[in-house]
């Protein structure tokens, strides 16, 4: 049994790993941005007065939360071409990640909206603001501040889960690892290095979200 | 070419789902037992025990499960074992589950008032009996909602073992899809089976959380 590890291939593989990590980061940042916007819209829709809209959002959330991400992705990836829609793998991946992230995001943002006391809304209305202004300027910022840590965690979890998109040939970090190990015949070493890169990425992403959230989102809100 | 009727697809998928359920149960029990050991190390006052447990948890929570499965899969031959999808799936999911469960339960231990430890110490119980009779029962009951919530995650995670060649629901679905080219039917049915398993558990978690609130 070979117990010594061989890392001689690292120099050569560096460019491929960096490229893959770049795609992974790009994918999660785009999906996170879209996901947060859609989550806010979804959470608002879930509290609307239209019952069908509320039910539709709830059905969407429960359907996504109770099925595996990779099944959702295969459903989209293999399904869309049969109805004549051809997307490249990266677009499918971003779509699937966004759809998944949004379902959890709606739950999280909804919890944040519940946490803002009714008095805030009533005070806003009493000041003569329109309901939409009250939501956007008073309730939502406070809700986001409360739930931002939970939202950040979910984004990090989603980045780790996005390793599965290597299965539809998106050229991200795990896909590059698959290629490298096929060339070097050193699968254990390759996946070990790439797993540690994911670890660093997840710590860095968490820091970035914390810092960015504090600095840009809640700047005027102590 | 063999014709697949809808019934053929449904029957094959439901048969494959048995492996998904079995793997979920085995990994949940295994993860619970290993997780308990990790928890005990994690809450120990001695740093040389709690630090490694903390790293263990951070390592499994900070890396993708797919790569953990790859590492177990290709790691088996290095410790002199044969490559085996079932063993990889059980071992990989057990290790991952143990880290998540240990962290969930640690939250419960932190939330437990210190008085519980002090009271049980003043009754003359030594550390292990405090843990077994007073602390753990309360922690497990307090954390039931997140524990069952994690079980839902675990059931969904079993789908990833299809990639390392374990013949569960998704792997069977891929084979059927390759033969029938009916992705919406095949993957839709797979999603439905996962939903039927997970949704009652999710409702249970919601009910537990509501009761507590």
Layout of strands and helices, then pairs:
The complex is a heterodimer of chains A (about 220) and B (about 210).
Chain A: H1 10-46, H2 51-65, H3 69-82, H4 89-115, H5 118-126, H6 131-161, H7 173-184, H8 187-217
Helix pairs in contact in A: 1-2, 1-4, 1-6, 1-7, 2-4, 3-4, 4-6, 5-6, 6-8, 7-8
Chain B: H1 6-42, H2 47-61, H3 65-75, H4 85-111, H5 114-122, H6 127-142, H7 144-157, H8 169-180, H9 183-212
Helix pairs in contact in B: 1-2, 1-4, 1-8, 1-9, 2-4, 3-4, 4-6, 4-7, 5-6, 7-9, 8-9
What does this structure look like?
The complex is a heterodimer of chains A (222) and B (213). By secondary structure, chain A is mainly alpha-helical. Chain A has a domain at 29-172: MetI-like (MetI-like fold, Orthogonal Bundle), CATH 1.10.3720. Chain A is 79% helix and 0% strand. Chain A has eight helices and no strands. The radius of gyration of chain A is 21 Å and the shape is elongated. Chain B has 213 residues and is an all-alpha fold. Chain B has a single domain (18-212), classed as MetI-like fold, CATH 1.10.3720. Chain B has helices spanning 6-42, 47-61, 65-75, 85-111, 114-122, 127-142, 144-157, 169-180, 183-212. The longest helix of chain B is centred in the N-terminal third of the chain and has 37 residues, at 6-42. Chain B is globular. Chains A and B meet through helix 2, helix 3 and helix 8 of A and helix 3, helix 7, helix 8 and helix 9 of B. Chain B: This is Amino acid ABC transporter permease. Chain B: Keywords: Cell membrane, Membrane, Transmembrane, Transmembrane helix, Transport. Chain B: It is found in: Cell inner membrane; Cell membrane. Chain B: Residues 17-205 form the ABC transmembrane type-1 domain.
């Amino acid at each position: 049994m070979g117990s010594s590890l061989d890392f001689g291939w690292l120099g050569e593989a560096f460019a491929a790993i960096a490229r893959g990590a770049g795609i992974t980061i790009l994918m999660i940042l785009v999906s996170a941005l879209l996901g947060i916007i859609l989550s806010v819209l979804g959470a608002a829709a879930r509290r609307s007065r239209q019952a069908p809209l509320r039910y539709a959002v709830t059905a969407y959330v429960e359907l996504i939360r109770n099925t595996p991400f990779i099944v959702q992705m295969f459903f989209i990836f293999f399904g869309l071409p049969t109805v004549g829609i051809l997307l490249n793998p990266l677009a499918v991946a971003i779509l699937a990640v966004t759809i998944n992230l949004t379902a959890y995001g709606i739950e999280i943002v909804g919890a944040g909206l519940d946490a803002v006391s009714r008095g805030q809304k009533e005070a806003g209305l009493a000041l003569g603001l329109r309901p939409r202004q009250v939501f956007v300027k008073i309730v939502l910022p406070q809700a986001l501040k409360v739930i931002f840590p939970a939202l950040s965690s979910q984004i990090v979890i989603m980045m780790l889960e996005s390793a599965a998109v290597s299965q539809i040939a998106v050229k991200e970090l795990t896909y590059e690892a698959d290629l490298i190990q096929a060339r070097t015949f050193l699968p254990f070493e390759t996946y070990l290095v790439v797993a540690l890169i994911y670890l660093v990425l997840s710590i860095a992403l968490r820091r970035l979200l914390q810092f960015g959230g504090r600095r840009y989102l809640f700047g005027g809100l102590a | 070419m063999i014709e697949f009727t809808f019934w053929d697809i449904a029957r094959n998928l439901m048969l494959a789902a048995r492996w998904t359920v079995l793997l979920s149960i085995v990994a949940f029990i295994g993860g619970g037992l290993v997780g308990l050991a990790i928890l005990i190390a994690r809450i120990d006052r001695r740093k040389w025990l709690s630090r490694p447990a903390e790293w263990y948890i951070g390592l499994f929570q900070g890396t993708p499960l797919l790569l953990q499965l790859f590492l177990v899969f290709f790691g088996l031959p290095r410790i002199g074992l044969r490559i085996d999808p079932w063993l990889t799936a059980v071992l990989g999911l057990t290790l991952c589950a143990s880290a998540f469960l240990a962290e969930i339960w640690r939250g419960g231990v932190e939330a437990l008032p210190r008085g519980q430890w002090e009271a049980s110490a003043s009754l003359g119980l030594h550390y292990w009996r405090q843990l077994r009779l007073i602390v753990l029962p309360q922690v497990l009951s307090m954390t039931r909602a997140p524990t069952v919530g994690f079980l839902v995650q675990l059931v969904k995670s079993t789908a990833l073992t299809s990639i390392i060649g374990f013949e569960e629901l998704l792997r069977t679905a891929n084979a059927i899809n390759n033969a029938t080219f009916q992705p919406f039917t095949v993957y839709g049915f797979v999603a439905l089976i996962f939903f039927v398993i997970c949704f009652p558990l999710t409702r249970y978690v919601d009910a537990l959380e509501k009761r507590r609130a």
